[in-house]
Amino acid sequence: MVGENRQIDATIEVVTPENIAFEYQVAGPFRRLPAFLIDLGIRAAFIFLLWIMLAFSTLVIGAFSIMVLLIVFFLIDWFYGGLFEALMNGQTPGKRVMGIRVLTTDGRPINGLQAILRNVLRIVDMWPMVSLATFGGPAHVYLLPTYLVGLVAMTMTTRYQRVGDLACGTMVVVEDPHWLSGVAEIEDARAFELASYLPADYQVSRTLARALAHYVDRRRFFSTLRRREVARHLGDPLLRKFGLPSDTSHDLLLCSLYYRTFISERSADEEHLAAARESPFLPIQEQMPLARKSPKISPRA
Predict the structure, then answer these.
(1) Which three-class secondary structure string do you get for the chain?
(2) Residue 281: inside a domain
(3) Is 10 within a domain?
(4) Residue 130 counted as domain residue
(5) Range of the domain at 273
(6) In this predicted model, what pLDDT tens digit does every residue of 80-126 receive, in sequence order?
């Protein structure tokens, strides 16, 4: 079922609307705490440097410096995480250092609203607050966050979601830079031919790129019938999007889009095509005869 997810230990399986399953390792509180402390240190260092700079100008502009400092402190305290996650595809500097990222619960990149809202709602996760009073002169009362609400929410959800994540439909996962075992080699010359018909300015989403990489990396283990079955789910909407003949091979289309996304350099396309045609390992053409329609690309494998 689309959108279904299963979890074993800290690994969750997410099925995208394209019916492609991905496995993510969910980041728990002990993985997220160092990232939070790194970001907290960055914010504190910035505020301290700004305070030092303004301290030299206090005698000149007085209360204006204090006002600027308070405004900057408010903006950084409330919007630091949201802005970074919106601009850095779900990561703050701390999350990038720790190798974690915020995604939606269906495995897609978060949008700006989700990034801002999940960080603004961090105030809820900080409760209950503990009062700390100081004496010896004017009494001051400080409220120290315990984060008990956030910790309880994380322990009670399968994806370790705090209140902000639950409200925005997001989760924090471990970023695996090696999700692709290597760039797969494309040997069928028809993949290069079909790639030339794909729009040069087509932007592949992160989810689609992962789906292409998983499929092309594993297709060598599939039989011809299994390739048809797996490639059809993603190939059908792409055929309509690109306006290709309905009998174009779904398998070949995914290989072509993979080539265009991960391998292709326009200046070297002709060299790839010529080399592939001369290769003795070129797949048997009878398995996928050329299409009768234009563009002349192989039909369904």
Answers:
(1) CCCCEEEECCEEEEECCCCCEEEEEECCHHHHHHHHHHHHHHHHHHHHHHHHHHHCCHHHHCHHHHHHHHHHHHHHHHHHHHHHHHHCCCCCHHHHHHCEEEEECCCCECCHHHHHHHHHCHHHHCCCEEEEEECCCCCEEEEEECCHHHHHHHHCCCCCCCHHHHHHCEEEEECCCCCCCCCCCCCCHHHHHHHCCCCCCCCCCHHHHHHHHHHHHHHHHCCHHHHHHHHHHHHHHHHHHHCCCCCECHHHHHHHHHHHHHHCCHHHHHHHHHHHHHCCCCCCHHHCCCCCCCCCCCECC
(2) yes
(3) yes
(4) yes
(5) 189-287
(6) 999 999 999 899 999 999 999 999 888 778 999 999 999 999 989 88
